[in-house]
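I am writing to request your help with a piece of structural work I have in hand. Thank you for your consideration; the sequence and its tokens are set out here:
=====
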Amino acid sequence: GLAHFTEHMCFLGSKRYPEENEYKHYLAQHGGKSNASTSMSHTTYQFDILAEFGEHALDIFSNFFVAPLFTRSGTAREVQAVDSENSKNLVSDGRRRLQVLKALADKDHHYSKFSTGNRITLPACAEDDEKKDDDNDTKKEEEGGGSDNDHPLKDLVCSIDGNCDDADMAEFVRIALLAFHRQHYRPDNMTVVVVGPQTVDELEKWVVPRFGMIADRSSNDGDDDEDEKDDDYDDSITPEKKEKWQKMEHLAAQMIADAATDAPPVPIEAAKSVVHQSAFRAELQGGKWPVVVTTKPLQNVRKLVILFPMPPSYAEPDRSPSHLMSHLFGHEGKGSPFALYQNAGWITSLSSGPRISAPDQNLFQITISLTKEGEEHWKDVVKYIFAYAKMLCTSAEETLKLSEGGACQSGDGAGKDDLYRIWEEVGKLDRMQFHQTSPGHVYSFAQSASQSISKYGTTNCLSVGSLLNETRDSLPLSGLLDFCQQIVPSNCFIERCSEGAWEEMEALYGDGTTSNATNGFAFGKQVEKWYGVEYFVSPLDESDVKPWGEGIGAKEMESIHLPEPNRYIPRSLDLCEELPEEARVQRIELPVSPPNLIVNDPSGRLWWKLDERYALPKAYLTVLIRTRASENILQSDESDQSSWEYSTKTSLQSEFLKSIFADALAIETYDAYLAGLGWSLSKSSAGFTLTCHGYSDRLPDLALKLLKELTSPSFLEERHFETAKDKTIRGLSSFFESRRADSLAIYYRNLLLNYKGNGVEENLEIARAITLRDIEKHHAMIWADNDLSLEVLYTGNVSEKQARSFFSDATDVIDSTRALVTQKEAVEDNIAYSWASGPLERRLPAGEDIELHFESKNPKEENGAVVVTYQSQHEGFKGKSLSSKETLERSACVRLISKIIREPCFNELRTKQQLGYIVSSFYDMSYSTNETPLTTSIDSLTVYVLSRKVEPKDVAARIDDFLLNFRSKLEDMPSKEIQDYAESLAKELTKPIRKLGTEASNQFGKIRRYAPETLYADNDSSLEDIPFDNAEVVAAALHKLDRNMILDVYDSLIMKKGSRSRILTHVYGRTFPLKEVPLPAPSKVYVSSMNELMTKRKSLIAYEPHSNYQRTGTRLLGLVGRHRSLQYAAAAATVVGVGAVVLFNFKGGNDDKKQTKI
């Protein structure tokens, strides 16, 4: 974990900038962010910031690599962050399975190393923290996680003078950090990418003087490094200790230098001479493959992974056989293994590709998610993989023979040139994707470019993987044949990850291993060293393996073949004829204009916009099928009047429906995916949203096909239903046992605040009882909704005529479906006398703290979590014509407070107090729509911490202390600093959108939320009512805020205990289990059971505004006058006494208020 620890330490100050948070504070103040990551071959540091502040940020940044401090206090504290990060990973199935894979590797191979590190491998904790973790050491040792009592570093350090104490160990870690920095953080081993609007010459002037100060310290002759070796030992260090520590420097330097030769070089030119050295060999598991590795997941999954060591293809990224093999084995179209398995009802997903692609090795994997029936047939699943590989070998051999005769190159292979055709298709689509794109964010671009340059150099760094220079003749046919010939049983090991597989192994081995070892390897239960993960390694009977090598019968082989020609490849990449000449080049900096409403009638609304910013042959099409039947069910009262009420069963049935649809259309639409066309179906309280995006040429055809398929019940087949039900039940049944503590804390909070159902347990019970017939009835009820309508946004490379044509076709599909369903199912007009509520949030009582206390049910969770949410008592800003000026100012203040508080919160609770690796604070905006289509916006501030250092109640107290103390810092903060934060937030909100998909999603979100209350039949409305310009409006308001306004909002949101609204959620892990809930206290409510939570939830009312803006009141009167459902709702409310719709008309100030009751 030393490389990872060095990454952490570099952030904690340099000689030029010694303050530990100076970097993050400067970035936060000027609209920036930062991150770093350590992989097997790279450590990457990155940041972005508003362009005008880039030079100074780069100066702070560059000094991490010139002269980092690596102070003793920082080292002792930050190792806790590394340990906390590691403890967070202990409950991740992906991380746990990775550690098992490393455990299977050759122990002398660099891949087997434990790369994250923890407080055991990096013994640099402060003394008080060592004492706190004594009990955890015992626990970790019992589980296989290691202990520092027999740390190998102790022997090394003790070898100097025969003694070793905690101070020696801590100092040795710090010395090793400095040695690692000297060895690896040198100019010839670094790549710097700087992206900005400045000229290249100016950027170069920023970079060269600063990074030019980094000395090559790897070959130190004793002179260049004198400044670094200044005596920084304080007076408390004895001469003997000082002499010992100086000897430790030589020892650490030698260790780091030796370890640096373990892994092969990264640059592609150097990698060409690297010898193939796989970390995975049959001799490591008894000498004969295949073997089966069985792991037990925390989540209820059924994974089957087949892994094949291959020769490295790292040095030829564009002509790697792995590239084409990934495409073929991972294909989901007709003739693929996926199609065969899905038709049999055996799998839910399949993917393939290199698990490891390194200069010295290549580990190719095929990952399959199984159904319950598929797990019973897992050996047959494996058999068809080998059968497909055999078919590929035959095809490659035949193609190779023909190519040697020249037939395939000329296209005269009489159907035997399919591999050439497929290679051409793959290249064409990759090149198309490379050229037809808009620039992404500089933050991600700089990061990916730096790694790519370090591997591939500057010539190909941006195009590698896009096959720009590949032709039909460059098909790596011989390499493909070589790779395919290694997809055989004797060259693989198999992982099974499921509860069922684990039970099979426990029945076979019990808790131990076999008494008879094979070539020194004992099969049976093993324990991984660093996470303590248990796993089984077992051999396979020859009777199981033999059929895999024999292949399948001729009739079965007919169902397996190479992919057919892709019919979704765009015929044209031309831009729309209506596009003006000046818009035929990318103009990302142009402001985003709202879409045009070109159809507004009872059948629905069509929004259209011809793109003038991206100059790409792409479009984005969103179809919202507005229906109350997505989450609600019709209920009749005593007078036989119907109303819509939320139903957990209905909501789950809608989830089933979209899962079934995705499964049913997977094979049919896979070619569209390969050809750059994506689609998804989602469900919300507004209805069902079908989203299609990609190249505009064939986009409407795909969308119309999907809509027709969705309206027809033909996709509701038993096999797809069983797959959807199985996935749902497995996800729900393992929810509590697989989630991290902070995820559970947010779940419990949301269950109280905004869930309509009764939680996971009820969902699981209902899901188990749902039948296919239930889904069929639900499908029919959707199309029978009398008020069902379409909300369509069609934007991008599309003309108005094309948009109208699609909308007309789509409404025809809906109308014909409604007529057919009504006739076939004899469904009556489901006229409901109430508006179906949309998203919900409950109002927290003013002056009351609600504390939730729950224990984590995850058996591996060591951490506890605290999530603190402050809900504003004042409604949030919706739009300039939907909200008052005062509402805008308050919302802007909450946003700005959240912005200002983020970095100091992280610095205090994470960097200084080291509560845990996860410390976060953020602004949150939610919405509530209750009895009418009027939406209420709600502002909140949330702080959360994941920690195993202190118990959750103490974490909550420290969050409290920070927020209370921060008030004075906010009061004393220089006005210039507040203005800088406001300016940076304003620029963040208004920075140019760079992707058509982002633009379309933002705009459709406003349409979905606000169109019902602003646009309706016969309404003389203005499109200005839909707040497309909210970002610009809030940004302008930020510039006008002053300190007093900010402090007033801070006080009402956080400080005033008698009027604020707050919920604190505590989840307890194994380190600090829940012992007792605090005794009742004034203005505090304690909840520690589901019954108590639901009882408290019943007492909370829906969040509705204390007041409504004038135009809102007028709009509701219009809605009642024109919308049939609302007329019935108003009448029913008055006659039956169910409730009342209260309208507040504001004319001027609060004193001039008119109240109307209906």
